[in-house]
Structures are given as structure tokens and as C-alpha cells.
Design a protein that fits this description.
The chain has a single domain (2-145), classed as 3-Layer(bba) Sandwich (D-tyrosyl-trna(Tyr) Deacylase, Chain: A), CATH 3.50.80.10. Helix 1 (39-51) runs parallel beside helix 2. The longest helix is centred in the C-terminal third of the chain and has 19 residues, at 99-117. It contains two helices and eight strands. Helix 2 links the parallel strand 6 and strand 7 (122-123). The chain is α/β, with parallel strands linked by helices. It has helices spanning 39-51, 99-117, and strands at 2-15, 18-23, 26-32, 55-56, 62-64, 72-77, 122-123, 131-145. Strands 1, 2, 3, 6, 7 and 8 form a six-stranded mixed beta sheet that branches. A two-stranded antiparallel sheet has the order 4-5.
Length: 150
């Protein structure tokens, strides 16, 4: 699994001109899923996100997690995170999991995040054409990959 995590003041998802999800302070997370991803990837990534200390403490240092600040999460599926641009100019998405594999993993990831955060996770709509609005706070953007645990 690959995630792009952005600390936001607010974020929202619009589909066909209608806001379907929105959050205030918290994390906007774009998630990409590969066919090889499994339960271990879900558990590792969810735990890291829940405990990731990227919110400022009273001294202005990034010492607090989304849990600590009682922030919200907006999770958006994004198969293009596994785009390969090795050959030519048109990206290949062969490394992204097909929907029959990705959707169940995406849903399990939502449940795991909700468990780790003890809070509801807002989402986009899997496979939909979405317009995402956000105010990135900092800006702070972190990339995580379960196959390259840096």
C-alpha cells in the first residue's frame, strides 16, 4: 500500500457537484493498493498513520499525532499512486490492484483506521471521478509505502 498523507486545515470530496465528505483539521490521505497487499500492510500502515507525530505542540514542534489533536481523517482511493512512467509518456497502472482485490482491502483499511483512531473515517467514493479540495497546513506532506518502510 502506498499513502500520501497531508496535514490539512480542512478538506472535502465533491462528486458531480455535490460534497460527499468533508473534514476540518486532520489528515487527507490518498491510498493506492497493489495486488500483493494484505492484512499485514493494512495493520502496519494504519498504526503508523494513527501515531504519526506531524501536528504542532504548544511550542510549535511536530510532536502530536492526529489522535492527540482529535483530528479527523478523509481517505481517498487513488490507483494512480502506482503509476509507472518507465516507458513512454503515458503512465501504466498495471501495478495497481484491480477493483475486485482493491475494494475489499480499501474497506478493511477503513475499518482498521477507525479502530486505531477510535473515530469515524470519512471517505471518497472508490473508483469515482472526484474533485478534492484542501488547505494543506504547513505544508506537511508525507509519503509512506508498506513495501519500503522508511
Amino acid at each position: 500500500m502506498r499513502a500520501v498523507i497531508q496535514r490539512v486545515k480542512n478538506a472535502s470530496v465533491v462528486i458531480n457537484g455535490v460534497v460527499i465528505s468533508s473534514i476540518g483539521e486532520g489528515l487527507l490521505i490518498f491510498i493506492g493498493i497493489q495486488s500483493e497487499d494484505n492484512e499485514n500492510d493494512i495493520i502496519w500502515l494504519s498504526g503508523k498513520i494513527a501515531r504519526l507525530r506531524i501536528f504542532s505542540d504548544p511550542e510549535g514542534l511536530m510532536n502530536l499525532s492526529v489522535l492527540d489533536v482529535k483530528g479527523k481523517i478523509l481517505l481517498v482511493s487513488q490507483f494512480t499512486l502506482y503509476a509507472s512512467t518507465k516507458k513512454g509518456n503515458r503512465p501504466s497502472y498495471i501495478n495497481s490492484a484491480k477493483p475486485e482485490i482493491a475494494i475489499p482491502l480499501y474497506n478493511k483499511f477503513i475499518l482498521q483506521l477507525e479502530k486505531d483512531l477510535n473515530s469515524t473515517v470519512k471517505t471518497g467514493e472508490f473508483g469515482a471521478n472526484m474533485q478534492i479540495s484542501l488547505i494543506n497546513d504547513g505544508p506537511v506532506t508525507i509519503i509512506m509505502d508498506t513495501k519500503n518502510k522508511e
